[in-house]
Structure formats: C-alpha cells, structure tokens
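Subject: ABC transporter substrate-binding protein

B.,
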Amino acid sequence: MSVTRIRPAAALAGTLCLALALTGCGARVAAPSGDGKATGQHPVTLENCGKKVTYDKVPERVVTNDVGITEIMFALGLEDRMAGYVMPDDKGDLDHVPWKGAYKKTKWLSKGAITKEMAVDAHADLVFAGWGYGFGENGATPASLKKLGIDSYVLTESCRNGHGSARGVMPPLDALYTDLDRLGKLFGVQDRAQELIADFKSRVADVRKKAPKGAARPSVFLYDSGQDKPFTAGRYAAPDDIIAKAGGRSVTHDLADSWTTVGWETVVERDPDVIVINDYGDTSAARKKDFLLHYKPLANVSAIKHRRIITLDYADLVESPRNPSAIERLGAYLR
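Prediction pasted inline below.
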C-alpha cells in the first residue's frame, strides 16, 4: 500500500490493550525474554526479496518507515537499536498498544515518507522500509541508500514479484514470520523472534479451529478507499491471510498483487457476504461505511443488504505484529 496518512483512530482504545505476557486483549505480545540487546556472529547474510544481502555488523541506528514496520522492531525488543521512526502524525491512541514505552523512548523523525537526507541526518546505519512503505523510485531506495553507506532491509510483504510494480512473493503471514526470523538473526535476538512466531501461530491455529468450514465460509471484500474504483487487497496483502485464517474467503484472492484497484462491477459480481473497512486515510471509517451503504450499484450486494460490515485498523491490515489480533477479532465476527 502507498502510505500517505494513517488513521488507526480512537477505536484502538476499545480493541487494543497494553499487554503483558499472553493476557489482555488486542495486539497481545509476549514480554521479551531478554533485554533486546543484539548478540551473535557477524557478518550475517540474509535473503531479502530474493536477493542475498550481507550485513557486516549488528545495526545500531535503525530508521523505520510506517507503523507496522516500526512495531515489528518494537515487538522484537529492539527500540534501543533505533535512531527513530517515520510515520504520519495521526498514529492513533498509542497509550493502549503493547509498545507504548517503546514509542516514548524512540524519536519520531517525520510525518512524511523516508528520504535519503533524513536517513543521513539521523546517522542511520540501516533503513527498514518497504516498496510503497517509504521506498519509491522518486525517493529513497535500497540502492540509493547503499551509495551513502546505509544498509536496508525491505519489508517482505512489499517485495516486488517481477510483474511490473506488483508486490508479493509469499502468503502474507509467511511474510511476517519470515521478517521476524531474519531480523532475529540480523540482530541476534533469535530466541525472541521464535517466541513471537510460535505465539502468533498458536493464536492463529486456535481461531482456525473455531472458524466456519467449506461452504459455510463467508465471502469477504476488503474496502480500503476510493469511490470511482475501490482500492483493495490481493492475495499478497495481509488482509487476504487475515480473512482466510479468520474463516472467510477473500473475493479478490485471485489478484496476484498486494494492494491494488478493481472495478465496482467485480464487487457486485462476486457478491461478498461481509465487507471489511480499512480505517485508513483522510476519509473516516464512518464516512466509508455510509458511502458503501448508499452507493446504488451495491444495493443488492449481500453485505450491504444485511449490513455485515466490520472496521479494522490500518495497523491490523498491513504486515505487523497486530495481524494475529486482527484474525482473532475478525474470526469472532464471522462466527
């Protein structure tokens, strides 16, 4: 997704809570088993978006772009390794997320996308961003940063797959687990990474046990934005896996891309039982819902007729440690 503005909204206060170990609600994350300090042998060579990348040392001044990427670092307990994060100014109520303390300890650098100049000014030795999540041909790229002596790690959800600008090389949750595993190796926090992966997989498995099966699985459309044409999620964006693991079927699973645009005729033809609204952008979720309910071409779509519409937050629906919580909440709604 191309990030311009995030509206995680006050709804986070009701859906997320500050979590310790495996208690509470929302984006539950196990407490770090260590102090988060990097250890291990370097150089380390990792595969990132199909390329072998060698890192000569443990990064000490990381700059991240966007909320999901930043919270991956926080979930790994690596806030002490960060020079700062780049994120729009409407980040939602961060007093009710598990990483409240990490946000307070880490410098907010800018509300715009990452730039080469920003990375240099922050004395960054690594930029963790993604294509459409800070990296773009008209701004900072891994290649342009490398010329400045700054390493990069590209968010796996955003990897380009060789078909133009299309993104996505693996199922979305696999992308999250891949990044946790590889970043764990890079920073020498493998135990913490594996704890997170095991916890996330266990929680997702619990939801799948309760989820509808076969023909009972409801069809679901993810609505991000757009009135002339809807912006939605293909099979390589996080909502596709969130919907599937929660017990639904994404009506745009056949699109070999991450975030992309379709026509309203596609939505009408595929007649989703449920619509998930992405609470993101300058248009509120309430206004998006009102538009959908009163847009005449959708009048006979099942989700509209039965008012089966649920809102999830932007940070739930991009690759992030909030994905398992989103699966749990959507799963409860679909049941």
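Residues 214 and 247 are 9 Å apart (CA to CA).

T.
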